[in-house]
Write a structure and sequence with these properties.
By secondary structure, the protein is mainly α. The chain contains four helices and no strands.
């Protein structure tokens, strides 16, 4: 394995461990929260998968960014972020 492969594997493992650890801290109330508040859940989905990509597209059109920046900003807008900043 090359150094690049080892670093990529370490990053993937760290994200997996972080998400798994956060899942272990979840309680039954955390899981049922979504079922009790479906409108809030829908608002979150719309914010994540509609508003953020549209905002990234708008910023691209306003500032006429490079193609590479367009791709990265759209990828970041579509990807959910693991809870790394708790």
């Amino acid at each position: 394995m090359s150094t690049h492969d080892l670093i990529l594997l370490a990053v993937q493992a760290s994200i997996l461990i972080t998400v798994f650890g956060s899942g272990l801290e979840a309680t039954v109330d955390d899981v049922l929260f979504v079922g009790r508040r479906p409108s809030l859940f829908l608002q979150c989905l719309i914010a994540m998968f509609v508003v953020m990509p549209l905002l990234a597209l708008l910023l691209d059109k306003v500032f006429d960014l490079l193609r590479e920046i367009d791709i990265v900003s759209m990828a970041l807008a579509w990807s959910p972020v693991p809870p790394l900043l708790r």
